[in-house]
Amino acid sequence: MHEDVTGLNEVVVTGLNIPRARKALGYSQGTVKAEQLENIGSPVNAFSALYGQVAGLKITGTALGPAGGISINIRNAVALYEGSTNRPLFVIDGIPMLDWQTDINRSTGNGLNDLNMDDIASFDVLKGAKAAVLYGSQGANGVILITTKSGTKKRGFGVDVNLTHSQDRVWLMQKFQNEFGSGFPAAWVNPGVVDAEGFYQKNGVQAYYPTNYNFGPKMDGRQILWYDSVMRPYVAQPDNIRNFYRNGYTSSANVALQGGGENGGFRVSYTRKDYKGIFEGFKLHDNNFTFNGNIKITSRVNFKLVSTYANTFNHNSPPTNQDVFVTYGVPRQLSTELLRTQVVDPANDNYFWWAMENRQTRYPTGGIVRDGLAGNYFWNQMQNDYDNTRNHFINSATIDVDIAKGFKFQLLGGFDWVTNKNEQKEKLRRPLSMGEGGRYYLYNSTDVYYNGQAIVSYEKQLSPNYSLNAFVGGVIQKRTSEWTSRNTRSDGFITRDWFSFSNAKTTPVESNGFRRYSLLYGAFGSVQIGFKEWLYLELQGRNDWSSILPPANNSYFYPGASVSWIFSEALKMPDWVSFGKFRVSWADVGRPGPEYFANNVYDIGNYGGVITYAPRGSRPPEDLKPERKREVELGLETKFLNSRLGLEVNYYNGNTYDQIMGLSVPPSSGFGDTKINAGQISHSGIEVFINATPFRTSNFNWNTVLNFHSDKPKVKKLAQGITTQGLWGMSGARVVAVEGQPWGQVVVRPYKVNENGERIVEGGYYSTDPTKEEVIGKVLPDIAGGFNNTVSYKGFSLDFNIDYQFGSTLVSQTNMYMVGNGSAASTTAYRDEAHGGLPYYINNSSTLVLLPSHTSAVPADSKYPFIMHDGVILPGVQPDGKPNETIITAADKHSYYWQTFMDIQPDIVYKNDYIKLRNIVLTYELPKKITNRIHFDRLAVSLFANNLWYIYKTMPNVDAEALNGTNVFYENNAFPTTRSYGASIRASF
Amino acid sequence: MKTKKIFSAFAGILLLSAVSCQSKLEGLYLDPDGFTSPTIEGFYTNTQQQLGIFRYSYGEMFHDFNTLNPVLGSGGFQNDGAPSSFSWVHDPYSDAYSKLRSFAAMQQVYNGLSEQDKQDYEIFMWTAGAIKEYIFHQLTDICGDVPYFNAMQGTDLNFFPPFDKQSDIYPAMLANLKEISTNLDGYTLNSSFIQQQFPRNDVYFNGNITMWRVFINSLRLRLALRLTNVMPDLAKSTIQEVLADGVYAKDRATSITLVDRRQDQAMELLIFRSLSERLTARLFVPANMLNLMRKPGFADDPRIPVLFQPDKDGNYTAMPTEAPDVAAIAAQITTTDLAATFPSMYNRTTFERNFGMPYQIITSSEIHLLKAEAKLRWADLVIVAADEYRAAIKESIDIYYEINALNTNTTYNGYIPASKAVKPPDADINTFLDQKTAEFNAAIGNEKIGLIYDQRYIHYNMLKPYELWADTRRLMKELGARVRKSPSNIRMMERTVYPTSEELNNPTNFQAVKAANNYTTPVWWTGR
């Protein structure tokens, strides 16, 4: 499972699906053959197999795991505007794919999720500008070429079967304290609400404190009156949050039939995937049919058709439920098992348990447990339907014609077509006689990306020393995107749970829609001259005309050039040098802006029947140009010792310029931002790729690949005297691009300090300085890569894959709020005498007064009939320079981290470095003599484990990839990560 | 020859297809759902209906109640005695400029018009210009120095306007309003199509030019009074000019009050939701206000039952001001049942559930109090201060009863019948007014202005925090603690800070105001 740089005569697919000899390439291209990845199992998302496989290709999941979207990025491509994509172009069998960013709120991923690993032959990663230059205005983020498996004549029946099953278990979760339950310290409430031990008083007895904050009394097992008026022991439930989740599984069955002969071949494949998520109610079913056939129509004409149809049904992908999972917390004594019995009320016609028998008032629990957890999580996930059905067609037809000697003509056409239907059915939680309710929502969308291209090529050996390879062609692409949605209004249904718009209390129901279209024409040409098969010069160019750009100015040219020198052929080399190539390339490629970006348009409305026009807060650019990247790449590819050791090193230096920016301007200009083409970001990076076979005997083999990528995109220039540009995708902090600094710095408000650097304490508390900002990290890693190994002995092989990244920072709201709501392990500090709390009392003026001892008598002017033991004096100085002596409660100290507007404090932001053993696979391939006997061509059994071990990890409480989406840089979900164990059987007969 | 023909035909086809390609590209350039040909009329109506100009918006008031009610003592809350730390989530700075965006777009279209069209559209531009000054006076009162003269010019690529001094902005606003008032004096709409559209697009006054003059002149009076500490001469001369003109808010008919035309969205977007959400946190009856309305030896202020509603026992009880007093009644405080709270709340029928209430932009009560104060400052003005003082209270009583009576909703959750107040007989009101007038006449020195302030405090209450805040800050120089109604642990917030982005996005110009970028530096017109 390694990036392949071997094969002196290897032919690879390059830009526009043109095959080329690898040795002639003047740029770096990573190729991953699917057979190298096949043992990993059948990932729900094919791209998750690419972790750490190609230097410079960064794969990052989201908190939703493989069922959600995935962030794919080449060479740290970045942008200065949220609407500019930093994702590479995905091209499958010559057809560009629809691709979009995703979040994690009931996300169903995007069209890439539908690709099936069993049907993919290879991934080719065009990383640099020259590699992607034939994609012109779409090449700046690199291109990933996906080639599906084609059919050839095989032994036996030509049938391949792959059965895989894995169990998914909750793995990484937050670390909670299990000493103190829900509640407030006495100091926060009026006398009489809690007793001297901190217990809430209800009906004169110690009772369950109806709040989600865990600043209550110590859980010592005593019997207390529970919220439902039953006496139960007051003990910690260490696994109560773990019990929100269940065990899941992924299972996949693939059957492929292939065959062929002299005139062509075909492969037809069917895959069924079932996925049960760890979240209640979450499941996914996927049916995938692929046909790949080619036929020689005449001796000069070949026809190829690749057709994929995927149908995915996604039920109840989880919503982000920050209130419960992150912000407010859950009582540490809450029994999730008990609560699960308090969701549906069978005694009351299966309505919501809490909505019936006046339980909301009779059984106070706090809104988070009742509405957030029982209602919005358990009820919604188990009773309601949030369904997505996606139909995905990818079709690619190619006609190749041998026109005359050396002349070839190729016509390629096809489309990527995705339709989505989202249907949401929300049941009534209470009878209609008690209030309004019920909701039905229907959304339909169609997205199509049409592509047609024609190429005429010419190949000739000009002389014994010189060869020529040239082509010209054109491309037409059209992209359309439309959706409409309808939903019942907030007053809900006429009758119970009939999911029809006819059942809407108010008609017409609410409806919305959206449409977006774009068109692109391109013309391209390429000339490659070879000298003695060891020197190649290639010149390429493409001109694009795009409807996204202003009509007066919609044509742009993208040139590129490369030289490849195979010095091991040109020069006399020692024997131990098997291969050596030096290459240099240069190109200038583009990135299309989003549709309608430069439009000067207005919003229309009415006020009491009078028309209103509203200018938008964003000033459109005067003259939009495409974003461009110019990049020089130098590369060295070598092989030593009979190709047992290979080394590839690339150095590149790029400059992204004419970037689209929503330049933040002072609101007093009349705009929030002005859209312009400006800004330069420099990239200079190194990619190192080493593959080696340290041991090789007839029975034993160890292959290892180490790859490494380092790149720090730096903001060289913004625009018009602007030195800082706010970026996007953050919560509680800001991400900025600052001139002269690395792209994507994270800034927060620092704590107030005096001139000596001492923390200032006011009224007992620290506070952050609203007038200052401080850089605490950046969102991109400095280095990333992988370490992949295959050890094989006879029929056994063991694969283990490690990937790593260093240098980024992840803003985690989970880490902040779990301190703020008293759930984090660290919040036991100062809670009582045993945890270092100070003794104090509260006088009649509500002032906290330090006492000499925990056994002090209750002073006469005490507001409460007892003294407290959870005092703390924060180290620091008062504004006048005197040491702080003001006492506050432990809950005050911890709950300071609970910030209404999510503003995170600098001391609770963590680096996100990790080294991860992502998977281990043990495969046993039955010997030929056995398989032959049972009429199998091949039979292999694998055991695998994914998400196995963080060898090193700096991020506490959440996963290193716990992001809230593919284009954001923060975490605010507290979704646990899963680990999966599974087995697969592969058979060919 | 044949080859040439073929070549020509081929070239022709190529050219045709190139042209058709180009037109296809052009056809897809524009967003099919983006509107491309707006008019001045639509921008004009949009300028008028921006939330927060006459309709108090949800988000703004939600944060205003939280921050300004404690500072001004205009809303009772459970004071815990902690020293106040300043914060105000509302960002009036960005908000004001975004409200001005449609005005800037109008200006842009207007500049490109023919001379004839310009003349027809001048009525739109003048009256919108008055709204602009209304927005700016509110902004500079809150933030001090702000970009004014060169603001809103981003369309011309002027993105970084300097911060103008409040001492320059005020005279300019007054001069501009005077010019508009003069332009409108005797103005009548002509028969052009454009001008005939004006009444429809003028959602404030339906094309009534005289009401525009009332609004503009009354605004001039308000602005003039702000300058008593710093430009008394300009203040006086402006007041004299307006009094001589004679067109300003004098009575109910000329009070500038506006009724919302989109009441279907009122609960979602407007003050009602903020009242609803802040009711139990910031909108108890403030003790300082109730004490003023229930002075020993005086009849009860008739506004008590329209501003407030009774508690669970049917009494009007206030939330104490100071923390120890709050602590003393803590056990009795209850808000679980909104129909039976303790202490009393602001009147929910008058305020919270009254979507058709007239918004008080500039009332005659405000102007009467203003004139009374002017007389005390400039004895030569032809004004009888006591008469104005009396009229102010009377008309304030009238308008709050009017507003309360407008609301016919009796079915909202927690409604109590006592929140629908019955106006006392005129004789009772007159008795009260006589007592108040006598008290005013008997007062000496600055106490007269103190009494005027008290009436502003009651009349504006929590509903008009910006007016009350401005008068408090202005009068603090002369009257000090006399005009402070807040608890002793709440410090005076003198202004608000600029958005943090300002230092990043307008760094050079920001240096001029950086030193005053805090909550504690009084703005220029306070004279402090």
UniProtKB/TrEMBL annotation, chain B:
PROSITE patterns given in the database record: PROKAR_LIPOPROTEIN (PS51257)
Origin superkingdom: Bacteria
Keywords: Lipoprotein, Signal
InterPro entries referenced in this protein's UniProt entry, alphabetically: SusD-like_2, TPR-like_helical_dom_sf
Signal sequence, renumbered to the chain: 1-23
Pfam short name (any one): SusD-like_2
Protein name: SusD/RagB family nutrient-binding outer membrane lipoprotein
